[in-house]
């Protein structure tokens, strides 16, 4: 069943190497029920790090896409490489995704490479959520990382959860909007969450954080400000609505915390992705060039994320397999159908899309499909003379999507 486009989220998890991107991705997939068999980063058996050679080197190289469902939304997670050598690849993924979750380590905080990635995300206007991870580690400080984010990244983090304790004393998190304490049981792999009243010694701390949050929200909206003055508080829906607008505009970043290794804080990230990050409808339509404009025809083309627009699809990754190359494609407009011949405007040649798949969380499991609608991401087998960054379109409606200079990378899974 196709997913309604407004319920689609094409997002990436971005992080400095070692901040916990792999662990967070895996916990998200597990929590969303997409994978049932757990791997462990330390022995290189996680689902997203499955290339044993690369896993050995500790580099997350599986820069493709996996899909999971969370509540009413379908989330396509587009992997972004964390290693410094892959900056160009990070740029490529940032162009394909609509929103990002940026993971920071509560110990190391904002590192040089986080600054690079943050600026790249700024350049591509990617709305972001932040996750301050590893609160259980010695030297962890939630507030220090927030401060570094403001100073070094010029970010505007808005905490929606705060930690209860830190280091060995880290116990859980407080949901500031709902005024609840959440304790996670890592023995149950995050399935058990005990929700309680906020512990007494945290009531005042949580209220201080909450009033900072309400101030930020009320300041942005006259009606909310009036409501706040009249009632002394704001309802959940108002907080979320205003925060969503500000997040999409790139003005604020909803920020969460926890320790993904022990599943703490994973559910708020998933809720945050659904609530605050854009669907393909919330981002500007893709633009491209008409490769052979006839007289009076425009050279610049805009394609809206609609099924009845001409097809515009971008190959953002090619994974070489023993049998056939698997192209990861984002469909910006129109419907991509299997068994069709499409134009590659770079070469002027036709390419045959023989099979298409939705990529599931377990990268080895693929669900075959006949068509993929505007906004979605899929795997395609068939195109031969293609490189990453190529467009696929209809012969009678050619478009060359604006392409950044992608270095050619073909990763071998054989
Ligand atoms: P990546 O390089 O960003 O993908 O980071 P990984 O997910 O591979 O994590 C790096 C290391 O930190 C691994 O040994 C993880 O087990 C560990 N790690 C990740 N998250 C946490 C956390 O929340 N707490 C603790 N204590 N360790 C973590």
TrEMBL record:
One of its GO terms (cellular component) is cytoplasm. One of its GO terms (biological process) is ribosome disassembly. It comes from the Bacteria. Residues 6-281 form the Tr-type G domain. Its main location: cytoplasm. It is found in: Cytoplasm. GO terms for molecular function: GTP binding; GTPase activity; translation elongation factor activity. GTP binds at residues 15-22, 79-83, 133-136. Belongs to the TRAFAC class translation factor GTPase superfamily. Classic translation factor GTPase family. EF-G/EF-2 subfamily. This is Elongation factor G. It comes from Planctomicrobium piriforme. The lineage of its organism: Bacteria, Pseudomonadati, Planctomycetota, Planctomycetia, Planctomycetales. The gene is fusA.
């Amino acid at each position: 069943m196709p997913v309604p486009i407004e319920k689609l989220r094409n997002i990436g998890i971005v992080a400095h190497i070692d901040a916990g991107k792999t662990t967070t991705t895996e916990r998200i997939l597990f929590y969303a029920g997409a994978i049932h068999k757990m791997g462990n980063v330390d022995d290189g058996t996680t689902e997203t790090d499955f290339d044993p050679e690369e896993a050995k080197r500790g580099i997350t190289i599986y820069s493709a896409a996996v899909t999971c469902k969370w509540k009413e939304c379908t989330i396509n997670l587009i992997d972004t490489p964390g290693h410094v050598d892959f900056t160009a690849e990070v740029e490529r993924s940032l162009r394909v995704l609509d929103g990002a979750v940026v993971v920071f380590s509560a110990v190391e905080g904002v590192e040089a490479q986080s600054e690079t990635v943050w600026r790249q995300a700024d350049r591509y206007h990617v709305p972001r959520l932040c996750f301050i991870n590893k609160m259980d580690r010695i030297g962890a400080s939630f507030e220090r990382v927030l401060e570094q984010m403001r100073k070094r990244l010029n970010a505007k983090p808005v905490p929606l959860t705060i930690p209860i304790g830190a280091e060995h004393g880290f116990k859980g998190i407080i949901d500031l909007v709902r005024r609840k304490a959440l304790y996670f049981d890592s023995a149950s792999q995050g399935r058990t969450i005990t929700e309680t009243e906020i512990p007494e010694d945290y009531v005042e701390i949580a209220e201080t954080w909450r009033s900072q949050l309400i101030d930020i929200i009320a300041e942005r909206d006259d009606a909310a400000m009036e409501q706040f003055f009249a009632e002394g508080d704001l309802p959940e829906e108002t907080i979320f609505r205003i925060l969503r607008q500000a997040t999409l505009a790139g003005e604020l970043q909803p920020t969460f915390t926890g320790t993904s290794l022990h599943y703490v804080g994973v559910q708020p990230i998933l809720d945050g992705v659904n609530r605050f990050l854009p669907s393909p409808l919330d981002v500007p339509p893709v633009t491209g060039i008409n490769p052979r404009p006839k007289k009076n025809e425009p050279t610049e083309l805009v394609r809206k994320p609609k099924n009845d627009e001409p097809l515009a699809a971008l190959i953002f990754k090619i994974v070489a397999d023993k049998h056939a190359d698997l192209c990861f494609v984002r469909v910006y407009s129109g419907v991509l159908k299997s068994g069709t011949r499409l134009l590659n405007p770079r070469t002027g040649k036709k390419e045959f899309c023989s099979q298409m798949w939705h990529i599931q969380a377990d990268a080895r499991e693929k669900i075959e499909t006949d068509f993929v609608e505007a906004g979605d991401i899929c795997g395609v087998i068939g195109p031969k003379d293609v490189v990453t960054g190529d467009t696929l379109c209809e012969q009678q409606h050619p478009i060359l999507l604006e392409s950044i200079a992608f270095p050619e990378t073909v990763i071998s899974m054989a």
